[in-house]
Amino acid sequence: MNPEFNYPVRILILEHEPDDIALLQYELKKGGLQYSSVVVQDRANYEQTLRDFKPDLVLSDFVLPEFDGAAAFYLKKEIAPDIPFIIVSGTIGEENAVQLIKAGVTDYVLKDKLFTVVTKIGRALKESQEHREKKEQEQRLENYARELERSNRELEEFAYIASHDLQEPLRMVGSFLQLLQRKYQDKLDEEANEYIHYAVDGAARMKRLIGDLLNYSRTNREWAIEQVDISATIREALRNLTTSINDSGAMVNFQDMPVLEADPVQMLQLFQNLIANAIKFRKEESPVIKIGAVKSDGHWLFSVEDNGIGIERQYAEKIFVIFKKLHNNIKFEGTGIGLAVAKKIVERHGGKIWFESVPGTGTTFYFTLYPVNK
Fold first, then answer.
1. Total domains present in the chain
2. What are phi and psi of 65, to 5 degrees?
3. pLDDT in tens, 90-108
4. Per-residue model confidence (pLDDT) at position 163
């Protein structure tokens, strides 16, 4: 027997023949099994003992007066579903044995082969222990996932409330700084004007950061699924980015796009963020952005390709992390949230996002989304 089992093993024996009981107990002792047992012969005592004795294992005859092994198994399944149940019989027959094994009976031992009972008990107890440990591990993982989900909800709630409540005092700070700049710009020396400029710029960047943080927290808070025409979504994103497109001279090309079952607001945000990212990280030449979609293995594979500055492969994970920026604010303004939001939206819709890039040549972002019938 495996030494990691607790001894003595508690065995409930359901048997009515004294000679068979004696033979069974002899084989248990002969096999070196340390055990304590309770022997019962009828349904009432069997049910009561299952509840009170709390056995580690049940050994049951198949044929009993006014009771049988199959009924005993199903009763055990209701009261103590996780403990092993072994039929010990000389009359069970192979067909009955197979049916009971399929129903969940652990094993069976023929009475003319009682010498195998200790081996089968050991195997049954080991499998039971492994099953119990697996269930405990699954429960721990489930508890961990539940706690992680609760913690994430609290963090998102905090981010939403904090960023929302910060907007008004920040608006006041920014407004008064701008007023100070306009009213006293000609009355202060160059150094003082520079300080005010830094303060105004800092307030403006903080405003953008808070706005982006609100958008990020809303990704999990707000959710409305409907059929979304991706072509119309891209056109709306381009209208929202008109100033950036005109200032950069960007060309955005896209083919006919599918209709998906998705959140329309988040789809707009997803495409707008990726297009804006392609415009922002451009070279001296005007950006050329190509948006494509192909159907593959039951989902749509989208691509947003640009001819910009490209991304080093070492930043493959970093670029999707909130507040992580690869460049400073002097050359490329931003808060470092846009791609984190894009990743969160894609994953919430059951897809994946990644990129391929050649530094100095351009970058293509790929992501998967599922069609309406998915």
1. 3
2. -60, 120
3. 877 778 888 888 989 999 9
4. 61
In sequence order, the 6+-apart residues with CB closer than 8 A to the CB of 332 are 280, 281, 325
- The whole-number pLDDT of residue 374 equals 40
What does the angle CA 31 – CA 34 – CA 37 come to, to the nearest 5 degrees?
105
What is the layout of strands, in order, in the sheet containing 9-14? 35-40, 9-14, 57-60, 85-89, 107-110
> What dihedral angle (degrees, nearest 10) is formed by the CA atoms of 227, 231, 234, 236?
-80
Same domain, 64 and 117: yes
How far is CA 296 from each of CA 63, 351, 371, rounded to the nearest angstrom?
59, 13, 11
- The answer as to whether 4 is a domain residue is no
How far apart CA 219 and CA 265 sit, in angstroms, is 9
Same domain, yes or no, for 208 and 236?
no
Structure tokens at 272: 């707008």
237 and 103 assigned to the same domain: no
Is the pLDDT at 165 greater than 80? The verdict is: no
Q: In which domain, by residue range, is 254 found? A: 226-369
Task: State the DSSP H helix or E strand holding residue 301, giving kind and residue range, or none if neither.
Answer: strand 299-305
For 118-147, how does the pLDDT look when each residue is reduced to its tens digit (9 = 90+)?
999 999 999 988 988 998 999 999 888 888
- How many other CB atoms are found less than 10 A from the CB of residue 250? 19
Q: CA 249 to CA 247: how far, in whole Å? A: 6
Nearest CA-CA partner of 217 in 144, 290, 165, 278: 165
Cβ atoms of residues 299 and 371 within 8 Å: yes
Judged against a pLDDT cut of 90, whether residue 291 lies above it is answered with: yes
- Nearest-10 crossing angle of helices 230-240, 264-280: 50
CA dihedral defined by 96, 102, 105, 107, rounded to 10 degrees? Answer: 80
Residue from 289, 241, 237 nearest 264 by CA: 237
Inside any domain, residue 147: no
Q: What percent of the chain has pLDDT over 90?
A: 45
Of 205, 104, 220, 89, which is closest to residue 158 (Cα–Cα)?
220
* Single pTM value for the model: 0.51
